Amino acid sequence: MNSTEGLYPFNLTPEQEERARELHESSIIIDLLFQGPLSPKAIPEAISESIREVCEPYKEDSWTYSAMPSKIIHDMAARGEISEFKEEWYRSGITAGNRQLDVSSVDKILISMGDIQRQFDANDWLVKAVTAEQIRAAKRNNLKAGIVTAQETDGLGKNLELLEAMYNFGLRVLQLTYNNQNYIASGCMEEANGGVSKFGMRFISKMNELGIIVDTSHCGKQTTLDACRLSTAPVIASHTGVENIYPHKRCKSDEEFQAIAATGGVIGVFAMPWFVHGDPNDTTIEHVLDHMDYLVRLVGVDHVGIGTDWPMSDVAWSLVYFKEHIAPRIGFAKGDGPSTETVKGLETYSYFINFTRGLVARGYSDEDVRKMMGGNWLRVFEAVCG
């Protein structure tokens, strides 16, 4: 990236620009819901079209057709066929980002374990981080750290031994439910707002015992409050927003934020245009920073982080198909994303310095910027995982 490409117009002075650059380069930066490092704008058009040709014969099976492009991209990246995979991660300055398991079924668990492990095995610059010290070591050695996470638990059923096996593989962050109801708890799209079940109490206890961080991002309000009451370790929301700024079901209330903070946890603000601002076609990084500012005022700077969840490692035509055919079937309201819109200032992950620049523009100290850019996540990771 050249000296000005992708820089959002915060109107920083030359001294502020230099300070932001030095902060970004020296800090441990963690995006705890990291769909990157690739994005539609970073994937060459020729590769996008070649993927379309491979996928077309599967179009009658909408689930397979929608999921194929992302998997093909990861396979190509692991084989070294997309140089942008490494280049974008290094340009971003992100030290650690999650590598996401699919826990929707036992079959998917096994497949995604293999896919994730292949990323680590094929890229000597990418290490699996299961402790905070491994993240610090990655920064010292100019490597990148992958944190194994999952956003759903359906494939586990009530099998706590399988949860332990996933921990042994490297799972360190697990969301209790994805939008809907499961054995453990109610998601944020459930009207009943049922909270954590009796089995869910045992499940959270097992997560605490193993050292897996309890994530409440897609959980309903009562589930979030119950998790904070039940967990003996810090609870997080890896990617959410402020309900009082934009009243979306994927955003959370002040009561939930205060409960998470009271556990010692952290709230990660996402960069999804449909969830942080009323116009997804005109959502900027300033809108994302507004959510972070609000949280700092509400619960303090020690409890605020970043979990962008966007943009996806996918191609544009696939994202349009997902919005039209898949999103309504997994809890998204009609027209409610995800699709091809991006936050202005975060069109690709290589523009991640705009977070640091924006926090500098808003008057935060170096220490506070370091905390929100990754230090707070590192503290929770160390407290729960070691």
From TrEMBL:
It holds the Pfam family Peptidase_M19. It comes from the Bacteria. PROSITE patterns: RENAL_DIPEPTIDASE_2. InterPro entries: Metal_Hydrolase, Pept_M19. Gene3D superfamilies: Metal-dependent hydrolases (3.20.20.140). PANTHER family: DIPEPTIDASE, MICROSOMAL DIPEPTIDASE. This is Dipeptidase. It comes from Paenibacillus allorhizoplanae.
